[in-house]
Amino acid sequence: MQKQHERQAKLNKRKEKKKEQQENAQKIAEAKMHRRLERQAAIEASKQAKVRKAQERLQQKLEKQEMLQAAKQAKKERARVVAEQKKKSKEEVRQLKHLQKLQKLEKQKLEKEVKAQQLMEARKKKKEDVANAKYHEAMRKAKERELKRQQAVLLKAQEKERLKEEKRRAKKLVKERKLEQKRREMILSRELKKPVEDMVLRDAKPLPELTRVKDLKISGSAFADLCMVQEFLHNFGTALDIDFDNEVPSMADMQGSLLNENDEDVITPLCQTMLLAALDDPGVEGPCAETALGVKLDQVEVNESNVSEILRLFIIARNAEPNEISDSLTDKPFTALSPSQKAGSLAFICNELLCGRTICREIESKIEYMSSLRHNKWIAEGNLRKLKALQQQKFPESKIPNKTTASEEKKSPGKKASTQATTATTTPNEKERKRKVVEDEGSDGSDDDDDDEDDDDEEIEEDDDEDDDEAGEEDEGGDDDEDDSDDESGDEEKAEPETLEEFEKRIKKLEKKQVQFRSKLFTSSHSLRALYLGQDRFRRMYWVLPYGGSLYIEGNENGETGLENFDMSKLSEEHSNID
């Protein structure tokens, strides 16, 4: 490596030396060139001096010759002047005659030019008059054409506006008819959906035997609170970063922990996890949101030893005053509370978590998702109706099977249980109710439009929940099919089918898409609310919990609320009237 550096240094020195030699040679050449140019300049200066001297001698000689020539010229000039004077007098006479002749010719020429100019101006004026006449005629025709075009456009616009107004009136009339028909159907549907006591029915069916929840040992209120906690964690556990598989126990484990039958306490860790989430969002404020040492609750590390005190302060801060649970936690730890109080504590935390921004955003996002699904479902239904109407126009002899109505007639087990009372009302009394509805249409027609819209929304939601129950099993398979068929159906929907087979294929595809939307809408609606099916004669509510696994009915202790003052004599009188 060092040798290479030395070799490189030698090469650099040689290059520098060679460069210096070249520069010196260049400087010497420049000096020689400069001396040569100076010698040439001196030689040139001497030559110019000799030339100037020769020119001066030549100029003196020329001046002498000019003086001699001038003398000779003066003599000749005097002789020439005398001759010219004679010749000039003759020439003046001749020029005078010639001038007179030229003046005469010029006068004739001017007269000809004036005549030609007048003729040219007359021709030019005539051409300008013709051009102006043509221009004015063209402008007049253009104005007439523009006026006719504007009149045609105005007439076309008036005709278009008239046709548009006629279509608008026709659409308005059709819309009013549809609204009137829909209003009648809604009124009839409301009348038919009104609950009817099964003792009033002529073909009343015996009530099924209802069994209690297996191995249920806690009170109904505590079990209801546990169900609420379980549904809440299923729906919003992901938003709260709660691992449902590891941190949320089953219903049996929670019941065993409430009754102290399990070896491991699962309620306290669950309460601790939910309390941490509640302290983070929505949080606590006010003077009660601090410990005895002045530390804020959201800054305290929650563990098994202080969870009872933090829960007590949290309940007081959120409730703005003590309640039964906070009073019990004053002198008892959380593990020493009764099962109802423990379940009530979890339910209280769930209710407070619902006020948090995280849960509210989750609910809003699910509502927006449901709105988009409902919108897409309505679009699919509209396309399906249009396609069926187009098929009826092109192929009136073909019959379109109404698969949607057939699918709506299929009821899930939960729906059958919820509609036992309403299906039993299809008796001769139904005709009387329909007749009563028709008679009362005049009085119901005076309702406000806002009330009708609210009723429409409620009916649509009910129909969606009922119709989508049947499509719940096809949700998973429908997602892939819909994603694969969206691109293909997008181009196909633009082209109008020509044959009956294409119509049937397109109708089947739209019906499948409609079922998929219903299934998604039904599944997403379960994440926001449970399905309420109604009440029986004992005022017991029937519920279908999305993650409960079956139909839940309130116990008699809850269903008998409000029946203490019930007049049994009226029931006996009505029963005798029916008989």
Automatic annotation (TrEMBL):
<dbReference type="Pfam" id="PF02791">
    <property type="entry name" value="DDT"/>
</dbReference>
<feature type="compositionally biased region" description="Low complexity">
    <location>
        <begin position="417"/>
        <end position="427"/>
    </location>
</feature>
<protein>
    <submittedName>
        <fullName>Uncharacterized protein</fullName>
    </submittedName>
</protein>
<dbReference type="InterPro" id="IPR028942">
    <property type="entry name" value="WHIM1_dom"/>
</dbReference>
<feature type="region of interest" description="Disordered">
    <location>
        <begin position="1"/>
        <end position="51"/>
    </location>
</feature>
<dbReference type="GO" id="GO:0000785">
    <property type="term" value="C:chromatin"/>
</dbReference>
<dbReference type="GO" id="GO:0005634">
    <property type="term" value="C:nucleus"/>
</dbReference>
<feature type="compositionally biased region" description="Polar residues">
    <location>
        <begin position="392"/>
        <end position="405"/>
    </location>
</feature>
<dbReference type="InterPro" id="IPR018501">
    <property type="entry name" value="DDT_dom"/>
</dbReference>
<dbReference type="Pfam" id="PF15612">
    <property type="entry name" value="WHIM1"/>
</dbReference>
<feature type="region of interest" description="Disordered">
    <location>
        <begin position="392"/>
        <end position="500"/>
    </location>
</feature>
<feature type="compositionally biased region" description="Acidic residues">
    <location>
        <begin position="440"/>
        <end position="500"/>
    </location>
</feature>
<keyword id="KW-0539">Nucleus</keyword>
